[in-house]
Every structure is written in C-alpha cells, then in structure tokens.
Design brief:
alpha/beta; 6-stranded mixed sheet; 16 strands; 295 residues; Nitrilase/N-carbamoyl-D-aminoacid amidohydrolase; single chain
Length: 295
C-alpha cells in the first residue's frame, strides 16, 4: 500500500489596514488576532479534509509590513516557542492530530528578531524552528534587513509523525545551496512560505522551486499571499500556491486572487522511484565545489 501523506497550504490576505508610517500596539494585536482566527478557520477545513501536514504563509499573522521601515512593527514579534501564537497552535495541532508549520515574526531577545517558522508535531510537541537565512533588501517595498537578522540555525529537518520535512522561507528560494542541504539531510517535503508580488518575481515562481524539487528528488509546497495590502500597495500578491512532485511537476495549484486552502496527496514512494532513476546524490562531486563557498 502506498505511503500517501495529505498536505495543505493556506494562502490569505490581511483585511485590517494599519496606518502608513508605523502603527500602534492595539492595531498590531487586532491584526494578529484577525489573521489567527482566519487561519484557524482554514485549519479546521484542512482537518475536515484529512490534511496531515499544513503550512501557513510567511509571517502568517500580520501584513507584509516590510513594505515600510518603521520600528513600531517590532512589537509584532513574539517568542518561539513560548509566545501565545505557538502555544495556541500547539493545542490545535494536538486536537487535530496535524503537523503545523507556522511562520511568525520571532523575538529572541531585546532587539534580536528573526523571520522564523516553527514546526509543531501532530501530538502538539514543538519540534524546533527554521530561521530565514537569506534576507533581502529590494526596492521598492521589501525592506527586510530593517526587521530581521539572518538565520543562525542552518538548514534543519524535522522528523514529524507523517514525514521528514524542511522549511525554506520566501527569498531563500533563490538560493539552491540551502535547498540541496535540506535534501542531503533527509527532507522528503520542503515547504516555502512566501510573500511576493507580481512584476517582481512571478516569472521565477514556477521555475526555481520545481527545479529544487527535481534536483533533489523531494516534494515541495510553495505558498504566496493574495491581494493588495493597503496602505502600502506595493503590488499584487499573486497567490498561485502549489505543490510539485520530485520530478518538478506541479500537481495542484491555487488561484492568483482567492483566499483558499490547497490540498494534495503526496505519495512518498515517488521519492525513491525518482532518485533511483536520477542518481544526483550518488554522482555529486563535493570535493570539486570548494570554490563555491570561498568568500
């Protein structure tokens, strides 16, 4: 009998418009509560559809505030795993017997902030976190170096109840080295929660991540927001979240403009089948790659 894991992705948008040029703590908390409630609704839908592993979008419980540079948004960060959001979702994961990948704005200490994804196992156990390694500073509207330190945890994998998974976050996807590291470490499914707009990256959306899946022989789930977020209006978050298989083929894809849950059945036996055909890991020559990591 095939080893099939049912996985899901949630693509949504923020509905509450903050002030431009920073905001206040009350508005931040209102946004976070609204986005959490919205994701809980889709998480319940995922449970009803039999989803076993579910991933939320980048900084799921906020707007993409990196569209401006204002230190009031530092108040959106919370501890991982001891903050209220992760604690709440540990309860949900246990209740639904579902693995959750939860990207949030993390506060490690005073002024020490990361773009992070927590991984919670199906029994509610916090397994660990991935911190976004590649931090962009791209005009207009992607001022992430103002908000996040580069990740310092490497490229961990997480052995969940249903599969071994890895996480890459948004801008990371432009760098094949981490995608390869996740595969070498044993990832069977890699999730890439993102926030990216049309006109900037859309031409790469269906190229890079299927290429990572094919080069490494694993499944990949790519997530993007939808809509245009006021007050910044830096462009259309074009959705189009999808899963692709170890051959790099997109097997299910969401719309460009609707909030929705994407569900796919991933047959884990395809990984070995593909890797037995394409022996990329066997034929690697790491002793010849030294120049790639020289400064």
């Amino acid at each position: 009998m095939a080893n099939v894991v049912r996985c899901g992705l949630i693509q949504t948008k923020n509905d509450i418009v903050p002030k431009i040029g920073g905001t206040d703590k009350a508005t931040i908390e209102k946004i976070k509560a609204n986005m959490l409630e919205k994701h809980l609704k889709y998480t319940k839908e995922a449970k009803d559809k039999g989803v076993q592993i579910l991933c939320y979008q980048e900084i799921f419980n906020g707007p993409y505030f990196c569209a401006e540079q204002h230190n009031s948004w530092y108040d959106a960060a919370e501890e991982v795993p001891n903050g209220p959001t992760i604690k709440k979702l540990q309860e949900v994961a246990k209740e639904y017997n579902m693995v959750l990948v939860v990207p949030v704005y993390e506060k490690e200490g005073k002024g020490v902030l990361y773009n992070t994804a927590a991984v919670i196992d199906a029994d509610g156990t916090y397994l660990g976190k991935y911190r976004k390694n590649h931090i962009p500073q791209v005009a207009p509207g992607f001022w992430e170096k103002f908000y996040f330190r580069p990740g310092n945890l490497g490229y961990p994998i997480f052995k969940t109840k249903y599969a071994t998974i890895g996480v890459y976050i948004c801008y990371d996807r432009h760098f094949p080295e981490g995608a390869r590291a996740l595969g070498l470490a044993g990832a069977e499914i890699v999730f890439n929660p993102s926030a990216t707009v049309a006109g900037l990256s859309e031409y790469l959306w269906k190229l890079e991540q299927p290429a990572h899946a094919a080069a490494n022989g694993y499944f990949l789930g790519a997530i993007n927001r939808v809509g245009t977020e006021a007050p910044w209006n830096i462009g259309e978050f074009y959705g189009s979240s999808y899963f692709c298989n170890p051959r790099g083929q997109i097997i299910v894809q969401a719309s460009r403009d609707k909030e929705e849950l994407v569900v796919a059945d991933l047959n884990m036996e395809e990984i070995e089948e593909v890797r037995n055909t394409w022996q990329f890991y066997r034929d690697r020559r790491p002793e010849t790659y030294e120049a790639l990591v020289k400064l």
